[in-house]
Amino acid sequence: MNKETVEFIDRDLLAEGDYVSPGLEIIKPDQCFPNMIVQDTSASDWPYLRRDIPHNWYVDQREKSVGFLNRDEAHILYNTALKFRGKRALEIGCWYGWSACHLALAGVELDVIDPLLAKPDIYDSVAHSLQSAGVLESVNLVSGYSPDAVAELAEQQQRK
């Protein structure tokens, strides 16, 4: 099969309501996030949620008012990170690991700083999802607040 046929098949297998911009390589680590569900955007009172965009809004069923990146945003992140395969990257905030998973699957060596990682249930959930995706060993999960945790990490690892 040629690349265009594979891309067509990949796009055809996206769920109704999912969208990935043309030309982006598609991955689908959904099975690594067993608590991810589609939620109605009216469940959130966050004023910046773009309710006018007709993409599926994915949330973790344990926290239904906070969403993940939508499928297109995750793929923009993934495809951008592909250009930096093998390089170091830093993510501030990972909300159950969806975005971190996409970055790590692209091949970056990722440090993630998130104060919610101090909660054992959230840390375990993120670590389990990243392990299921086969990328846990390339991700350093750090509990802390930016910018202080960024400075501490840089000091510990002698990096800028």
From TrEMBL:
One Gene Ontology term from the biological process aspect of the record: methylation
Gene3D superfamilies reported in the protein's UniProt record: Vaccinia Virus protein VP39
UniProt-recorded Gene Ontology molecular function terms: methyltransferase activity
UniProtKB keywords: Methyltransferase, Transferase
Protein name: Macrocin-O-methyltransferase domain protein
